[in-house]
C-alpha cells in the first residue's frame, strides 16, 4: 500500500510499504476514505532532525472496516467509521468520566499515527471507533469533510470549551485561528456563549469564524491585544480557549481573563514547563489535554453534524490526492489553507 513518510525537514513523500494486518484481538484494519493534515503534524514536518522514511504523524481518518480481530463486537467489515485520534477503552475511570483522550488503560499507546495512508491498523478498536450510518457514497463531499473533523479537530475544539466550563451567557476568547480554533468557536456557540472573540490576523479565517458564531475579532497581540479584548467585553473574559500550544498563546489566554476566569488548553504544548504560580492571585482555573473524541461523537457531535446543526467541515479549504501530500503540508505550513484534506482513490 502507499503511505506518506517524512523524507527530510520540510518535505513529505510517498513510499510503498506492507499493508497492516491484525496483530491483536481488538485490532481493526480500515481502508481510509479521507485523511488530512493536522496543525500538530507541522511540528514533525518542520523538525530539522527528522530522518528520511520516518512514519507520518497523521492521526485523523474516516474509512471502511476491512477486517476485525476476534474480540471485536462493535463493528464489522463494510462499516463506515470515524477513526478518532485517540483509542480509549470506554471502561476505565477516565473514560467513564468522559476523558477517553487520556484513557487510564492505554497510557502511552492512546494516540494514532501513520494515518496518511491507504490502510491503517486501529488498535483498541472495540469501543473507540464510531460508526457512521450508511456508506461514503450516501454523503456529499461537504458532509464527508464535516465527518472527518470528528476524528480530531471538532472534538478538540469542543474539549477546550468543556474543560473551560463555558456556560450559557459566558464571554469567551479563542486563541488560535486554525482548524481547532475555528471549531472552538463552534463549540462555544453550542454551549451558549453570549460573546465569542477570535484572536486572528488573517482575514479569511476571521470571516470563517464570524460565520460560525464569533461576535468579534481581535488582530492585536500581547498587551495591546489583551487591552482590545477587555475594551470589547467591558472587562475580562469568563473563559479563554488556548488552541495553539505556544507559551505566547498561553500568556494571551491568561491575560484576557477576569479574576476567577477559566482557561481550557488543547494546543499541544511546545514550550518548556511553565509555572502556574502566577495565576494564584487571580483564582484562574486551568484545565486541558487530549480531547474526548469518542465520547463527544457518540453523545452529540455526530448527530449535530448529521442533522446539519454544525458545519465544521468548512475548515478544509483545500483537498489533495495522497500523491500530492507534500503540497498538502506546504499549503498549511505557508498558511495558504486552514486545513488540508487527503482524498484517497
Mean pLDDT, rounded to whole units?
96
Q: What value does the Rg take, in angstroms? A: 20 Å
β-sheet strand percentage: 15-25%
Distance between the termini: 12 Å
Helix content: 25-40%
Per the principal axes of the C-alpha atoms, what is the gross shape? globular
By DSSP, the count of extended strands is: 16
- How many strands, which pairing sense, and closed or not: the largest β-sheet? 7 strands, mixed
SS-derived structural category: alpha/beta
Q: Give the SSE order as H and E letters.
A: EEEHEEEHEHEHHEHEHEHEHEEHEHE
Low-confidence blocks of residues: none
Number of helices: 11
Brief descriptors of the model:
345 residues, alpha/beta, six-stranded parallel sheet, 29% helix, globular
Describe the structure concisely for a colleague.
With 345 residues, the chain is α/β, with parallel strands linked by helices. The protein has helices spanning 41-46, 93-96, 125-128, 141-149, 153-163, 179-190, 203-212, 222-233, 247-255, 293-306, 325-333, and strands at residues 2-8, 11-16, 28-36, 54-55, 61-68, 80-83, 119-122, 130-132, 171-175, 195-199, 216-218, 237-242, 257-265, 285-288, 316-321, 339-343.
Give the helix/strand layout.
Layout: E1 2-8, E2 11-16, E3 28-36, H1 41-46, E4 54-55, E5 61-68, E6 80-83, H2 93-96, E7 119-122, H3 125-128, E8 130-132, H4 141-149, H5 153-163, E9 171-175, H6 179-190, E10 195-199, H7 203-212, E11 216-218, H8 222-233, E12 237-242, H9 247-255, E13 257-265, E14 285-288, H10 293-306, E15 316-321, H11 325-333, E16 339-343
Parallel strand pairs: 9-10, 9-12, 10-11, 12-13, 13-14, 15-16
Antiparallel strand pairs: 1-2, 1-4, 3-5, 3-7, 3-16, 5-6, 6-8
Helix pairs in contact: 5-6, 5-10, 6-7, 8-9
